[in-house]
Amino acid sequence: MDSIVERLEPIQLPLVNRFYKDCRYSAKATRSDEVYVLRQGGKIVAALRLSSKPEHNLFLRSMCVHPEYRRKGLGEELLKALGPVLTLQPVYCFPFSHLEAFYRNAGFERQSPESVASFIRDPWASYCRQGRDIIIMTRSSNLST
């Protein structure tokens, strides 16, 4: 089945929030996010949000593939389609540790908490205190600074 990746306009945010809810995912997109979805047959089957962070960084969050569509390469397809967007500036994410290889295959590298700025380290530490088994990963920009 053909897939389409698109950036949602703010007026369309209820669609992705319904998708997250249907997937039993606690995420909620806001107007300050860039939201991208992968559709098959017009149906949202995968989504993610990009949030701006200080020092011209992005934060990839709430990446979700609908449970019925997992393990079919759709997450990889979504990240690959966003390659041009993800190379414009450094991108951080907090994947669950068991997803490290998936994100590494998408060009992300694991970072130690000591090697990142506090605007990344502090939320990561807070999530870890809540019992989340997450790591810090980043994808560098291809632009020279």
Features:
145 residues, alpha+beta, Aminopeptidase, seven-stranded mixed sheet, globular
Characterise the protein shown here.
The protein is α+β, with helices and mostly antiparallel strands and 145 residues long. It has one domain (3-139): Gcn5-related N-acetyltransferase (GNAT) (Aminopeptidase), CATH 3.40.630. It contains 5 helices and 7 strands, in the order βαβββααβαβαβ. It has helices at 13-22, 74-81, 83-86, 100-105, 118-129, and strands at 3-8, 34-40, 43-53, 57-65, 91-93, 109-111, 136-139. Strands 1-2-3-4-5-7-6 form a 7-stranded mixed β-sheet, with helices on both faces. A hairpin with a 3-residue loop joins β3 (43-53) and β4. It is globular, with a radius of gyration of 15 Å. The chain starts with a strand and ends in a 6-residue tail after the last strand. The relative contact order is 0.15.
